[in-house]
User: Which sequence fits this backbone?
């Protein structure tokens, strides 16, 4: 058998086949049961509609999923992304609005165009804060030789405490208009967050597919020891993966805090670590590391949010939605299980050669 | 003799360190706030952390078997909401409690079944369990339901005097009793040793002819049972049920288990250590409460820092073990 496998089989075995199919299925369900779902209108100077909402809401999760994919590909996991989002958002909002503790909030701070720190410094500090958190995780995993789940658990437990420490337990509110732009602004009638996702996504894609880093990541994920003996600096590869994940979480923190005009250290980015892992798993990247696909993870994140918004459209209460999401996970997980793929293969290959005759 | 003592120290090092740190933390607290030396404060650790202790025991077994159970806090919420709803319809507590335990076992069993037979990561499956349980709890009730059942009230309000003027409640005793039973099972029965073997290396356990699948199912069912039991104790303590109860308690439980010397890689651990992990967690909270000026977030930061310290100690001990 030296000819290429048939086109259909190649498509079926591609990484993004199942995520795309599930995504399309969900859209079909929407089209049938929620007629207004795809309606897109123009208000003032931008588009609005459910699909725009899906993209705008999914943007932070897509960013985190990009970082998480890289980490999971190195046979790790980063449980601290939610906490990193909280820490970076807390740092940014504190810099804008310096009224801490029991101090009275001054009127001039409430104004729409005053800030305590220039915006570019705020953004820089947010990105730097998240990257440092990622560096800490990477340090623990690569140099401290701690299992990734435990190493990142530390920051997951302590992170929200640190974020509250930064904001002094207050829920920060940002009145500074330019800061709102990242989560609420529009460029060419599309949400700004979408462009941010595109830029980070392309950057990550170039990094892992056009340089050798992606290959290193996969080889470390498949067998760290073998990669070490073949001259790959597996420690630095892991360090890079966690740092990059921290960086992505920081951007997510920027968008999220800008979207809600503030930061509640206890609730911002809550359960993002779980959603991001779910997105990566939907994208078909194995938790045991190795081959990965950034695009598939991003579609996974989109799928989660399309599902959420669909449920909202149907009038399911936000809290009860968790049960629906659990069912979604169950379906996805069963679709990916060995048992099910054997089942599918049997259906499709019934016409072909039977077992044992294949070469 | 000295050699045996040394081996004992090395093999039980993490556990002894945990106990030592608990004693140190408690003595420091007692020195700072003399009121902490009262025996009631010590018993309060058990009263306040009754359900945390119970779910941590179940979680310890699951983690020793190289799994993880994130659904514990969700199960607490579901059990409390479901039992409150059932009790409000006038059902007897003697029916509700076994029903809740059965529900816990069934959910744990199903999760174990998916994990074992579909070869899905425990992390994902139990995460699904967490969302499912919380979502179901919210479907049952969106608001907090009170429990007015006589049996529950009796259990919640009867004080058992242990020493002079120091008391515990009846549900407080469930955790320690469960701990002793679990300790016996893990140390002296075939099932317990099988759990360690499966956690250490599933493949070699299978080659030795051990019933890997059955053991994993039992462990996850036991985890579900403990979560449901913890939920009952939780709802007795609060006399109400709501889907939002015990937010993030799975983290506290995992941190307690890790502080107690159980390795998340499986195969190593001890329920006695988990008890002290829970007690350390409780002591930190108590000290913060006595202090009064420190804010609640210091608990999380302290627990995180302690987890880090313990992981350092553990890796030191296991490196020593490997070398010797």
Assistant:
């Amino acid at each position: 058998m030296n000819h290429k496998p048939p086109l259909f089989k190649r498509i079926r075995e591609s990484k993004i086949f199942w995520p795309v199919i599930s995504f399309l299925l969900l859209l079909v369900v929407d089209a049938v049961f929620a007629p207004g779902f795809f309606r897109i209108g123009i208000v003032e100077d931008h588009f609005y509609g459910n699909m725009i909402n899906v993209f705008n809401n999914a943007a932070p999760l897509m960013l985190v999923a990009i970082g998480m994919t890289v980490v999971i590909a190195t046979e790790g996991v980063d449980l601290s992304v939610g906490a990193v989002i909280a820490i970076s958002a807390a740092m940014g909002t504190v810099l804008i609005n310096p009224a801490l503790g029991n101090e009275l909030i001054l009127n001039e701070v409430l104004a729409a165009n005053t800030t305590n720190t220039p915006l570019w410094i705020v953004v820089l500090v947010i990105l730097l804060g998240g990257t440092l958190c990622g560096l800490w995780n990477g340090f623990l995993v690569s140099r401290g030789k701690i299992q990734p789940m435990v190493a990142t658990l530390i920051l997951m437990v302590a992170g929200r405490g640190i974020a509250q420490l930064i904001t002094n337990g207050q829920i920060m509110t940002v009145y500074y208009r330019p800061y709102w732009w990242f989560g609420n602004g529009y460029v060419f009638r599309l949400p700004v967050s979408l462009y941010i996702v595109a830029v980070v996504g392309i950057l990550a894609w170039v990094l892992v597919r056009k340089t050798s880093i992606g290959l290193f990541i996969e080889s470390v994920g498949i067998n760290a020891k073998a990669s070490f003996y073949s001259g790959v600096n597996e420690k630095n590869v892991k360090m890079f993966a966690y740092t990059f994940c921290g960086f992505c979480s920081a951007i997510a923190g920027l968008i999220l805090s800008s979207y809600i005009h503030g930061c509640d250290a206890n609730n911002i980015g809550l359960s993002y670590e779980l959603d991001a892992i779910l997105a990566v798993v939907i994208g078909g990247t194995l938790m045991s590391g190795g081959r990965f696909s950034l695009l598939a993870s991003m579609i996974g994140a989109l799928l989660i949010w399309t599902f959420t918004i669909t449920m909202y459209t149907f009038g399911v209460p936000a809290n009860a939605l968790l049960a629906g999401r659990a069912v979604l996970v169950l379906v996805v997980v069963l679709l990916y299980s060995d048992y099910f793929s054997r089942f599918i293969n049997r259906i499709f290959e019934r016409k072909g050669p039977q077992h044992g005759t294949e070469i | 003799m000295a050699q045996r003592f040394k081996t004992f120290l090395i093999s039980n090092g993490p556990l002894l360190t945990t106990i030592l740190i608990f004693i140190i933390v408690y003595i420091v607290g007692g020195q700072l706030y003399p009121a902490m030396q009262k025996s009631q404060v010590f018993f309060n650790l058990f009263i306040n952390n009754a359900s945390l202790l119970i779910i941590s025991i179940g979680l310890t077994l699951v983690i020793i078997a190289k799994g993880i159970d994130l659904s514990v806090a969700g199960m607490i919420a579901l059990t409390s909401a479901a039992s409150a709803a059932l009790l409000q319809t006038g059902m007897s507590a003697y029916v509700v409690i076994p029903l809740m335990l059965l529900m816990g076992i069934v959910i744990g069993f199903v999760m174990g079944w998916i994990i074992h037979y579909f070869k899905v990561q425990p992390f994902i499956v139990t995460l699904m369990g967490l969302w499912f349980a919380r979502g179901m709890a919210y479907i049952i009730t969106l608001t907090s339901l009170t429990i007015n059942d006589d049996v529950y009230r009796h259990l919640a309000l009867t004080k058992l005097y242990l020493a002079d003027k120091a008391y515990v409640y009846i549900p407080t005793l469930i955790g320690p009793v469960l701990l002793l039973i679990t300790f016996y099972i893990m140390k002296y029965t075939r099932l317990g040793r099988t759990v360690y073997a499966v956690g250490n290396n599933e493949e070699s356990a299978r080659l030795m002819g051990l019933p890997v699948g059955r053991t994993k199912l039992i462990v996850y069912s036991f985890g579900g049972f403990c979560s449901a039991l913890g939920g009952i104790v939780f709802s007795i303590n609060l006399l109400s049920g709501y889907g939002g109860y015990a937010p993030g308690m799975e983290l506290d439980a995992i941190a307690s288990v890790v502080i107690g010397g159980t390795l998340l890689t499986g195969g190593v651990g001890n329920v006695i250590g988990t008890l002290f992990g829970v007690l350390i967690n409780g002591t930190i909270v108590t000290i913060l409460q006595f202090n009064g000026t420190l804010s609640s977030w210091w608990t999380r930061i302290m627990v995180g820092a302690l987890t880090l310290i313990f992981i350092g100690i553990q890796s030191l001990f296991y490196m020593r073990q490997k070398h010797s």
User: Anything to note?
Assistant: Chain B has a mean pLDDT of 86. Strands of chain B lie at 145-146, 159-163, 166-169, 240-241.
